[in-house]
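Q: Fold this one first, please.
A: Sequence and structure below.
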Amino acid sequence: MRLYTKTGDKGQTSVIGGRVDKDDVRVEAYGTVDEANSFVGKARTELNLSNEKLKQLDQELERIQHELFDCGGDLANKKSNRKLKLEEKSILWLEERMDAYIKETPELKRFILPGGSEAAATIHIARTVTRRAERLVVTLKKIEEAPEVCLRYLNRLSDYFFAVSRYINYVNGHSDVEYIRSEEVFRGKTKKKDKR
């Protein structure tokens, strides 16, 4: 099988339902979802899988990689009668997992700097790329149809990545580094116990 087709040599690509320019906002949106997926894959290679908690997280992140493929495929479909692969239950699952990680990690009051362990820093990159994908889907929805479930999923996923990056650092013994000029922006929003 050849990986190259030469059909995109003039700056166009195929989506489900036609051909578009490679800088079309739809292509930008699902391409950015793919970028986020790649950073999730990188983070998984950086997890210490001898730790049972991080081994379980690795399985979660694999599930998310599949869901990001679903999301990208749904965004690449221009057909109005499209059947979506990404489902509402994926959003609910993210919320459940996020709540669990928030309970595990120390109380958060201020903005924190991205960083800590290598895997956590990579998850922070995945978080910011996911936010960019979300913004692109918002733009897409202003000019064409785009799946609402993808927008909600990406919104929730970036929050999940924030919780997960803190959890990875917590398990690895890295404390959050607070932004030194931050106010207490999370007062009363994240009531948790330090159970390590």
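Q: Good. Now the second chain.
A: Here it is, same layout.
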Amino acid sequence: MNHRQRTRIAVLFGGPSTEHDVSCSSAAGIITHLDRSRYQVQPVRISRDRRWAIGPVDTPEGVYTPDDLLRLTPAPALTRPVTDLMSASAALACADVVFPALHGPYGEDGTVQALLEVLRVPYVGSGIAASAAAMDKDVTKRLLAADQLPVVPWALLKHPACTLEKADRERLGLPVFVKPARSGSSIGVTRVDDWDSLPAALSRARRADPKVLVEKAVIGREIDIAVLQQPDGSLTAGPPLEIQVRGHQQFFDFDAKYRDNTTRFAIPAPLDDTLTHRLQSLALTAFDSLGCFGLARVDFLLDQTEPLINEVNTLPGFTEASQYPQIWAATQLPYPKLLDTLITSALGRPAPSRAAA
């Protein structure tokens, strides 16, 4: 294809959240695997201090690392923030599709999606409301529970002065998990095995978000289900993935996710057909319940009685080694074709659905 026939994709990454480095790794995977015969690829980086850096319009084919992307998007000269944003908005507005490879607050919570809606640029993934709802674990649980979906029991601590009441301690029991309500990649998450450790766990979580959840610990298996929206609007649930933590970590924390090479993913997870279909059905219903679009990963915890939904990620990790691309690769949908599906769906997204999602 010639230069003008290719679809122009702006890959947006970085950001000020604690998941900045994870976002850069996801963007490197996406930019590496986008088919240059079909796409012009432009990296757009948001620095930790919210500066926007615009990369080349047509990044060549190749294998990219986060450091490569940093070199492609050098820090701009000092300007007023409004000038900085105007330059970035102009670049995004010229794209045919934006792929917001942003994790956590500012990127996965509806903030950037709102900007793209104002610019009237198609983008991959869920819209403003669904992104905001899925980013907040408390809101997610309330919406799913309202639709009679099983969720992990929890207590909400809204303000830094709040602590866990005696009634909630008795209801949840020990151990519990303490986590920021609006963060990802297990940042700020602590397992608490005795109540004397609770204050330190709350302090750690509140460094990421003043709004904190205390969840009942479900001792069992961790299973992920990937949901993919096809260009015709239909939804497909992938095979279950089981997370097998084999290092010294007690759960699938940040180190187990990104630093421990002993962590393994079993795809498909060794489950019977009835349970597999149950998990896939729950994942599709959760996707619909939150009003998601394009893609999501629904994470489950299995105890001895029933599967419980733990989280819904509207933009899961996107490195080649991440769960979401690996699930689809196991179905013979390789990374480049997965990206094609997401981009085609974004381009064909009806305007009313975009506004509502």
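Q: Anything worth noting on the second one?
A: The first strand starts at residue 7 and ends at 14.
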